[in-house]
Amino acid sequence: MTARRICFDRILPRDQRRFQRTRTDQAGRVRAIAPRHSVWVNGSRIRIRFEEGDSDVVNVVQRVAVRWTDHANLQFEFTDDPRAEIRITFDEDDGAWSYIGTDNLDIPLHAATLNLGWVDEGVILHEFGHMVGLGHEHQSPHGGIEWDEAAVIADLSGRPNYWDVDTIRHNVLRKYSVDQIHGTEFDPDSIMLYEFPPEWTRNRPEGTHENDDLSAMDRAFVRSGQMYPGRPDPDARSVFLAMGSSAESAIEAREEEALYAFEVKKAGRHFVGTEGGLGLVLALFGPGQPTRLVARDDDGGSGLNARVVAYLEPGKYYAQVRRYDPESSGEYRVGVREL
After folding, report:
1. What is the CA radius of gyration of the chain?
2. 142-193: per-residue pLDDT in tens?
3. CA distance 67 to 74
4. What domains can be seen in the chain, in order of their start residue?
5. Which is it for the CA torsion 142, 148, 151, 154, positive or negative?
6. What would the pLDDT profile of 34-62 be if each residue is shown by its tens digit?
7. pTM for the predicted model, two decimal places
8. CA 118, CA 112: separation in Å to the nearest integer?
9. How are beta strands 114-116 and 96-99 bridged, if at all?
10. Are 299 and 242 in contact (CB under 8 A)?
11. Contact in structure between 114 and 81 (CB atoms under 8 Å)
12. Distance CA 133, CA 39 (A)
């Protein structure tokens, strides 16, 4: 059997035991409810630094990776800044992997956040897909792939992966228990799906085929309201909140994101949170940078409300609010105050 080169997800310790909330839709299909706590602020400029690599390889990565920004409302800035959010290595002995979305911001600046152990267009697009916040398509709850576990484990235990059983289960056999789940039907053409042989499955006699470009569904999904629709920059579209105040709002459009800005004049402990009957996800960024994650929460407040309490330095902050259940709608209130 041909050796399979498959990337693996890098998962933060806090997500190892994250409980996956699910619901059953009218068709009786179980779907993940994607809190999407790792989604970047829409319109973000993400700085990317190459820790190594010759100029020819670096140029290929730069040319290919920006295809995501043709559809997602994000900007990639390739830089030598040591504070870059994304740091790329090319270790051939470490496979291909990336942290997902804003999980990259929790990685120490001395460490890589994305590795390209082999370089071709499909792999580059796949790993940058993780970087912008997407998970593996074959682990979607919509995928319906029934694995021949013995065959999968036997193949991936050997070269070139040499994975142990726990790693194989995490990266192939299990459905996602983290929050980066496609909200679409299973897409056999997705760049986030690898080629799997028919011998690995019990219900797909054709297996899955190799994809080396973004599918129509990939492109539509990342520019949808669930991810990064075309909008002005964060400052142009945020609602300003005065310290000690709150604002009423409502979520009606599917997967709407709301952004609130506020100014901290004096360093100290601050509260940012929501009120109402909606299950909401709150991510706080700053100071001054909508790509610098401070904290996030989805149900730390009363009921299903989000609550963040953090020590904040002076500066401008952005509070990103998204619904937990993509089908929900209704009114809510968001507020900020000093403690």
Report:
1. 20
2. 556 788 889 889 888 877 667 888 888 877 776 654 344 535 567 778 888 8
3. 11
4. 8-222 (3.40.390.10), 234-338 (2.60.120.380)
5. positive
6. 335 678 888 899 999 999 989 999 999 99
7. 0.68
8. 16
9. antiparallel
10. no
11. no
12. 6
